[in-house]
Fold:
Amino acid sequence: MSARPIRIGYCLSLTGPLASNGNTARLAHRIWEQKINRGGGLLGRNVEMVCIDDETNPKLVPGIYQRLLDDEKVDLLIGGYGDNSVSPAMPLVMERNRYFVALMALAVNASLNYQNYFVMIPTGPHPSEALTDGFFSLAAGQSPKPKTLAIVAADAPFSKSPVQGAKAHADRHGFKVVSEALYPLSATDLGSIIRSLESVDPDILLFCSYLNDSAALLRGLNASRLEPKIVGGAMIGPQNGSIKAQLGPLLNGIVNYEYWLPVPKMLYAGVEAMIAQYQSLARTGSADPLGYYVAPQAYAQMQVVEQAVVRTNSLDDGKLAKFTRDMPFETVLGKVKFGAGGGWSESRVLQVQYQNIRNTDLATFRDVSTQAVVWPASLASGTLVYPYANAKQIR
Structure:
């Protein structure tokens, strides 16, 4: 084996508001790295992941990637978690014409159309709308059909695309937007935003929020007099084990997107073993103790890089990009094929309703008895309880 490892450089939000998800991705990457090196590495060389903390600050990202390329001399780049860590890296990535597989960034390449960009996220060819497609489809199928929609969203890069998608869904289904509120990430009193909606009392309440914001919004909703018929949609937070353990029964009735859960139809080859190893390592530290949301995506991200390198027998950016554009990949998330713009060729976003949660014990969330996949029908593990007033009751 060559003494010089293949160095793969990137940044993640290991501190700051997105630290839990960033550390989850980091742990999944380490599991992949160790597995590869135990098996002899790639191209006869060990792999070394060079990860730098971007502190959940997008302003730091361009300098980090320049350092990775010019000072650290990494062989390959990958994208970090989410729009905050990916979007600011794109100008330099494009300037250097690098192969770039990102993680869970939503619509970064929609206007750039960079041909060497790929992203591990199951939102498919229409990412802006995919996140809440099921949420609005479920709402539109209820009787009596809800009529009004209020949107509450973080004023951050992540939220812009889902909010646009939500408005498109509202227009298509005939829902009237009666309120749209944006709050800064520095906001501490989110309850006041919820209380301000009492005068319009929307039928549909869409939240587009980060981890701690999601918890604050749901606490504010519980303390308010609002009676929406369906709540949730685009929250980053309820997927995370630490947020689940904070909120417990306050999650009951919430309908929100997910990317993977251990339901029978999603137990793809290798995913159970990977999750078991992840959870055994995540008992201490700041990573999500469950890992269902980020860890499979992060591990599959590296499986794509691995298979491209092995199958092309190369580290050449152009060869890797062409292979990734053309070929399907076998991952812990099943078979993945990339399409136009570098996203998945088909969407596989879930909508989950939290049901019958009785306590804040993390063990409550290790299986799917309290997390019913209610959309799409092809992957469903339960049925939607409607309206929210009924769904939040323990049965």
Q: What stands out?
A: Residues 127-258+355-391 form a domain with the Rossmann fold fold (CATH 3.40.50.2300). Residues 19-38 form the longest helix (20 residues). The chain has two domains: 2-122+268-342, 127-258+355-391.
